[in-house]
């Protein structure tokens, strides 16, 4: 997976000019204007496809480099097996390399290994001592507990990231003021390393609940979420921003989510076009089954459609799943969705997942000028 902060680093390492394309988290000024479907030029699907192809090629190259790095690391660890201290040092160096390159999140086990035998405070987990079978039950019982825990922390979610989805209902006559205010504040907060947060993207709803703005943020687990809130709300300009924001919106809704293990959130990209946020409310207890079927369905859909990410809510609107897609335009959306039915596996996914749904909602959205994914 292409590192999520890659585009931001390119921006900071290249001299700025009036012709430079805006990169993610850039503080460059732009004309503050709410986007609209009328901004989309007709018959530009070929341009979208070309950008998509380049994006996927770059993604594949970064994955290849990461696998090569992991292979070299494994060889190094094997050669130094007789020296535990050296092996530990090698592993630490590898982790630091991947994190520095923004590639640590690509491993499905990233951030999990160190939690297998210890608690977050470094203490040994219960059930590993000599008397564990008497205190914590049988090994079979403990294994069942571990399977239940793994079903959510490892099977469903990639544990390194927590995402929030923030939805603002903006007063119709205050949209321009809102765009100006948030367009200055959000990129500023995302650009400050001490805030420990990244803005995945910002969008305005064009079909659905109009004058609704959707923002998705990314944090380093819940610890990062707390640290980010603390840092941002203690910024000297926060209270003035918050005061102005409250005069422009009628409501604010926030949910905390995790991304599905099989569908990592896209890194920053600028393909153009429109976005569709599809939200599903599932019957309670069906999330694991949903994940199982969609893991196969996504493989089929990726042949004809460009996915951005998929998340399930952990705090907020429970039993809700969000899928975000990107298309060149609405006509291309129609064509790609119809084409999906010709791909083996997609029909079965629909057949098996529809009974799991209580209700569903679709929004057609346009990216904001500062959005890292646009």
From TrEMBL:
SUPFAM superfamilies: Dimeric alpha+beta barrel. Residues 169-261, 275-371 form the NIPSNAP domain. Coiled coil: none annotated. Residues 1-94, 109-136 are annotated as: Disordered. InterPro entries: Dimeric_a/b-barrel, NIPSNAP, NipSnap_domain. Residues 72-94 have a biased composition (Low complexity). Pfam families: NIPSNAP. Residues 43-56, 113-124 have a biased composition (Basic and acidic residues). One of its GO terms (cellular component) is mitochondrion. Residues 19-31 have a biased composition (Polar residues). One of its GO terms (biological process) is mitophagy. Belongs to the NipSnap family. This is NIPSNAP domain-containing protein.
């Amino acid at each position: 997976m292409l590192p999520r902060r890659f585009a931001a680093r390119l921006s900071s390492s290249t001299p700025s000019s009036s012709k430079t394309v805006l990169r993610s988290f850039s503080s460059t000024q732009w004309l503050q204007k709410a986007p609209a479907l009328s901004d989309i030029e007709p018959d530009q699907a070929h341009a979208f496809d070309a950008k998509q192809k380049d994006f996927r090629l770059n993604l594949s190259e970064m994955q290849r480099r990461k696998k090569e790095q992991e292979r070299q690391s494994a060889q190094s660890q094997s050669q130094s097996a007789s020296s535990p201290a050296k092996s530990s040092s090698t592993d630490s160096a590898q982790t630091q390399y991947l994190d520095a390159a923004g590639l640590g999140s690509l491993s499905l086990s990233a951030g999990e290994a160190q939690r297998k035998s210890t608690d977050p405070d470094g203490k040994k987990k219960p059930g590993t001592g000599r008397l564990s079978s008497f205190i914590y039950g049988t090994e079979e019982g403990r294994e069942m507990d571990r399977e239940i825990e793994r079903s959510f922390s490892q099977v469903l979610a990639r544990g390194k990231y927590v995402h929030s989805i923030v939805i603002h209902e903006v007063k119709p006559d205050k949209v321009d003021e809102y765009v100006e205010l948030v367009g200055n504040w959000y990129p500023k907060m995302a650009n400050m390393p001490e805030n420990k947060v990244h803005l995945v993207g910002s969008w305005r709803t064009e079909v659905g609940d109009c004058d609704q703005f959707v923002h998705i943020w990314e944090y380093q687990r819940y610890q990062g979420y707390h640290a980010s809130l603390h840092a941002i709300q203690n910024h000297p300009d926060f209270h003035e921003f918050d005061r102005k924001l409250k005069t422009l919106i009628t409501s604010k809704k926030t949910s905390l989510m995790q991304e599905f293990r099989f569908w990592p959130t896209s890194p920053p990209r600028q393909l153009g076009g429109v976005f569709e946020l599809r939200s599903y409310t599932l019957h309670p207890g069906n999330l694991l089954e949903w994940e199982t079927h969609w893991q196969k369905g996504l493989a089929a859909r990726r042949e004809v459609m460009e996915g951005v990410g998929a998340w399930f809510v952990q705090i907020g609107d429970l039993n809700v799943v969000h899928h975000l897609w990107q298309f060149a335009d609405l006509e291309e959306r129609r064509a790609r969705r119809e084409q999906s039915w010709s791909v083996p596996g997609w029909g079965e996914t629909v057949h098996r997942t529809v009974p799991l749904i209580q209700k569903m909602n679709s929004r057609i959205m346009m990216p904001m000028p500062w959005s890292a994914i646009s």
